Amino acid sequence: MTETRILITGATGYIGGSILTDLLRTNHRAKDYVISALVRRADQAKALESKGVNPILFKDLDDSETITRAASEHDIVINTASGFHTSSARALILGLSSRQKQTGSQTHFIHTSGTSNLADRPLTRSYTESRIFTDKSDIYAYEKHREELEVYAQRTTDLAVTDTGLAHGVKTYIIMSPTIYGVGTGLFNTLSIQIPTLMRDANISGSAAVLGNGREYWDHVHIADLVGLYGVLLGKIVEGETIPSGKAGIYFSGTGEHTWLQVSEGIAKAGVELGVLESEGVREIGIAEAAGRWTGGNERVVELAYASRARTRAVLGRELGWKPVKTDGDFEESFLTEFRVVLEEGK
């Protein structure tokens, strides 16, 4: 059987590292895969090489020449490095296009994005969104509409991925995830961004905080369930099955939902149990303060990431056989587990 050549970007990160670990487990047909990973440092390359992964050193995401060349040597790219970096995503697809011309075989690009692309702005009231989205609807058209109103790098990249893939005959699949929770299984970073950021801040400030009243809803997914969705798509692709791609290939991954106040309350409760917070109370703060503490001063991003509404229903993946198993109880229990990992970072 011909080996399938897979390139992973972001293999040292939370999502990419967990996907890579899953790929290397014996329950996958790893013997039929040649797995490569783009990495920036020699120590990362050495660690991955010891696991049977072919490391490819590159400078950074702006190193388009190396990125394109690497993709041109693979059949499938799983891009988890950054959903906000348009030029690197385009470079990967162009590389896959070259591969396709060389081999005459279809190439595939699985891209990582997020539901902040759909989120509204309830505090500044510059955009209000009340609907619950399903990935069976035309999400591409909705993203295009929103992008015309406000440029947002992650959404810009989604549109570029779809358009570039269609223009060059590369099949693209976008996995648009909400808040991701749970401890990852990669060799390097094992924590997500949103909730751990709030945990670190609570540990430093001595109390949990919420942006605004925290009443808006977002979805969430456990990292293990999310990895399972990538696995389902990859399996279908390798088997040669035709699945939704391009404009129809935007997949949601949410399995439950929360309010931002519930997140802050969960952090406060875990902090008290761990002895680093004195109270389970949550302090309400404004955009300027939240941006300074959580997003490096970026007020536009902090509203989307920590106060907005973004509700989705993941249908496409389930139709392909994806079976997430984590429950609301797992989400609630994750606060204590993740806070422990956050506290270990400083030791």
Write the layout of secondary structure elements.
Blueprint: E1 4-9, H1 14-24, E2 33-39, H2 42-49, E3 54-57, H3 64-71, E4 76-79, H4 86-103, E5 108-114, E6 133-134, H5 139-149, H6 153-168, E7 171-177, E8 179-181, H7 194-205, E9 208-211, E10 217-222, H8 223-238, E11 250-252, E12 256-259, H9 260-273, E13 282-285, H10 287-294, H11 299-306, E14 312-313, H12 316-319, H13 328-345
Parallel strand pairs: 1-2, 1-4, 2-3, 4-5, 5-7, 6-14, 7-11, 8-10, 9-13
Antiparallel strand pairs: 10-12
Question: How would you characterize this protein structure?
Answer:
The chain has 347 residues and is α/β, with parallel strands linked by helices. Helices cover 44% and strands 18% of the residues. The chain has 13 helices and 14 strands. It has helices spanning 14-24, 42-49, 64-71, 86-103, 139-149, 153-168, 194-205, 223-238, 260-273, 287-294, 299-306, 316-319, 328-345, and strands at residues 4-9, 33-39, 54-57, 76-79, 108-114, 133-134, 171-177, 179-181, 208-211, 217-222, 250-252, 256-259, 282-285, 312-313. The protein has a 7-stranded parallel beta sheet with strand order 3-2-1-4-5-7-11, sandwiched between helices. The protein has a 3-stranded mixed beta sheet with strand order 8-10-12. A two-stranded parallel sheet has the order 6-14. Helix 5 (139-149) packs across helix 6. The model has no long low-confidence stretch (mean pLDDT 96).
